[in-house]
Amino acid sequence: MVLFTEEEIEYLGRQHIGRLATSGKTALPHVVPTGFHVDAETGNIKIGGHAYRGQDRLYIRHLKGNPQAAFVVDDLVTEPTWTPRGVSIKGPVTIHDTGGEALGPGFGPRWIEITPHWVSSWGINEAVFAEPVPPRKLSGK
After folding, report:
1. What is the pLDDT of residues 126-136, one digit of tens each?
2. What does the angle CA 112 – CA 115 – CA 119 come to, to the nearest 5 degrees?
3. Are the beta carbons of 115 and 141 closer than 8 angstroms?
4. Which candidate, 8, 11, 99, 132, has a CA 20 to 30 Å from the CA of 35?
5. What is the 3-state secondary structure (H, E, C) of the chain?
6. Of 75, 74, 93, 88, residue with least CA distance to 119
7. Which residues pair with 38 in a beta bridge?
8. How does pLDDT run across 55-77, given as a tens digit for each residue?
9. Is the pTM of this model over 0.85?
C-alpha cells in the first residue's frame, strides 16, 4: 500500500536531496544528507551511494543493528519569505547488497530501501502555512 498522495509523489520526484536519520546501539541519532529515488509504484525510497574507503557508511552500520529510519525531504517555495514545504517519512529499512549501481553513476552495489509506515507533509497541496497533512500510518504499525 502506497501511503503517499499524488501530490507528494510529484513533489518527491522533483527533489534531489533528503536527510536520512538513523540510530545505532547507543541510540545516538545520526543525520546525513543524501540523494534518493522514490518508486512511485511501491512508494519505497531507494538510497544508494559511493563506496566509502572500503567500509560501510555509518548509516549502514546503524541500520544493521536498528533497521528503522526517518527521512525528510524539504525545500523553500520562496525566499526570503521562508515558505517551507516537505515530506517526512518513517519506516523499516532493507539493506540490499547488490543492484545499487543502477541508482547512480559510480555507485556501489549496496543500497537501502525505506518502506514508509508513517508519512506526513506540509505545504505540498495546501495554502501557504496551512496545517500539515495529518500523518498516515500503515494499520497495525
Report:
1. 665 667 777 88
2. 125
3. no
4. 132
5. CCCCCHHHHHHHHHCCCEEEEEECCCCCEEEEEECCEECCCCCCEEEECCCECCECCHHHHHHHHCCEEEEEEEEECCCCCCCEEEEEEEEEEEEECCCHHHHCCCCCCCEEEECCCEEEEECCCCCCCCCCEEEEECCCC
6. 88
7. 45
8. 678 898 899 999 999 999 999 88
9. yes
